[in-house]
């Protein structure tokens, strides 16, 4: 992958106008006696873009709060409930590096021109959001953040391809309240043009983001999205059970099912000629090595790997969406692989079946037991 990182050089000063502005935009949630004796001021370059973040979920809140705390020009479009909470108490971001509380201009819909619109809503809402705000988005740069490989196509069918930029978000957190997020997973933000070579605009956006995130300009953003999709194929299994990754994959039969889903992913993309970016975050080499083991050995290895995630429970986006009453997004993960298989190899039968099972849980709210999953997939017969 060809990529370019942007690093911000910081200068330390005391006093100055910039420190007052920063204090107003980002309010550290610490007691007075805990403050350092000498205030350190970071010189920030002037904002280059007027930005609108669509969506106040985990990703949208992290992006909006982080950029606003760096004195970027940010507004947000959010639901009535989220809008009321943010207007009342601000947008709070908790992290290991410190907590911030920002005052944010949050609106029901976009009613002005902006330079950059960041779409963080779920994939099923992109079409509606884009249509609804089309008059103000027509000549605006649009950045998608969804894991789906179809997000950019949906936007391009409405607004054309010229202003569409894709991205893959490797950071995340937990939504605590409608205006509060625990930013517990830092990671890179890959951005790039999905339909044409990267240009100066992409580099300028990356530089703006780099004030708050480790941003990478990627020339093969589509292959990065496919790599993330394949590496997430097993995340639907905990959604069937309502359990954490750690609890789910401590069971060797559940780990066996995860390995089968991954093997179908590698086989289907290879037959379809889909390139998967080789990035450390996805650990595809490690997952591919499971193909060289017997299914039982692979399941044991996978179970051990998941146990190394740590003590903090990990549930995955699919289950989190279902718990919050949002669309699960399964059609754009396992379901996407199934569609690719239908056009090429027809070798994603387990992914097809599990996609339908997740939809059943989404519709009925009834979870499966492990014994039911074992019977339905006849896991005792798999070798």
Give an account of the 3D structure:
The protein is an alpha/beta fold and 383 residues long. The chain has two domains: 3-218, 3-Layer(aba) Sandwich (Rossmann fold), CATH 3.40.50; 227-381, Orthogonal Bundle (N-(1-d-carboxylethyl)-l-norvaline Dehydrogenase, domain 2), CATH 1.10.1040.10. 42% of the residues lie in helices and 17% in strands. The chain contains 17 helices and 16 strands. It has helices at 17-25, 58-69, 80-89, 126-132, 134-137, 151-159, 200-209, 221-231, 236-241, 245-249, 252-272, 284-288, 295-307, 317-323, 334-343, 349-364, 370-376, and strands at residues 3-5, 12-13, 27-28, 41-42, 50-54, 73-77, 91-94, 100-102, 105-107, 116-119, 141-144, 164-169, 172-177, 180-185, 188-192, 214-218. A nine-stranded mixed beta sheet has the order 1-16-15-12-11-10-5-6-9, with helices on both faces. Strands 3-8-7-14-13 form a five-stranded mixed beta sheet. Helix 11 crosses helix 15. The protein is globular, with a radius of gyration of 22 Å.
């Amino acid at each position: 992958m060809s990529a370019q990182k942007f690093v911000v050089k910081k200068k330390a000063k005391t006093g100055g106008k910039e420190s007052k502005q920063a204090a107003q935009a980002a309010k550290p949630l610490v007691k007075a006696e805990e403050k350092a004796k000498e205030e350190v001021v970071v010189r920030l370059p002037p904002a280059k873009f007027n930005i609108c973040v669509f969506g106040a979920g985990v990703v949208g809140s992290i992006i909006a709060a982080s950029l606003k705390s760096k004195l970027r020009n940010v507004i947000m479009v959010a639901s009535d409930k989220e809008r009321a909470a943010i207007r009342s108490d601000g947008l709070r971001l908790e992290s290991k590096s410190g907590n911030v509380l920002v005052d944010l201009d949050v609106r029901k819909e976009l009613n002005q021109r902006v330079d950059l619109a960041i779409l963080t809503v779920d994939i099923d809402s992109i079409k509606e959001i884009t249509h609804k705000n089309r008059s103000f988005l027509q000549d605006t740069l649009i950045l998608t953040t969804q894991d789906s490989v179809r997000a950019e196509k949906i936007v391009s069918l409405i607004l054309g391809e010229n202003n569409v930029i894709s991205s893959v978000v490797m950071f995340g957190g937990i939504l605590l309240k409608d205006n509060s997020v625990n930013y517990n997973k830092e990671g890179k933000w890959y951005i790039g043009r999905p339909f044409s070579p990267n240009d100066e605009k992409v580099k300028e956006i990356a530089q703006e983001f780099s004030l708050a995130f480790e941003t990478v300009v990627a020339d093969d953003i589509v292959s990065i999205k496919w790599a993330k999709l394949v590496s997430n194929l097993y995340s639907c299994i905990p959604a069937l059970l309502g359990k954490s990754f750690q609890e789910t994959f401590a069971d060797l039969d559940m780990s066996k099912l995860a390995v089968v889903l991954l093997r179908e992913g590698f086989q289907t993309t290879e037959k379809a000629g889909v390139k998967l970016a080789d990035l450390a975050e996805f650990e595809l080499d490690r997952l591919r090595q499971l193909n060289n083991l017997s299914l039982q050995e692979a399941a044991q290895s996978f179970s051990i790997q998941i146990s190394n995630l740590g003590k903090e429970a990990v549930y995955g986006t699919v289950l989190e969406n279902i718990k919050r009453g949002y669309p699960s997004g399964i059609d754009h993960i396992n379901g996407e692989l199934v569609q690719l298989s239908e056009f090429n190899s027809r070798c994603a039968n387990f992914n097809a079946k599990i996609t339908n099972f997740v939809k059943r849980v989404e519709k009925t709210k009834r979870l499966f037991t492990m014994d039911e999953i074992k019977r339905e997939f006849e896991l005792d017969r798999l070798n």
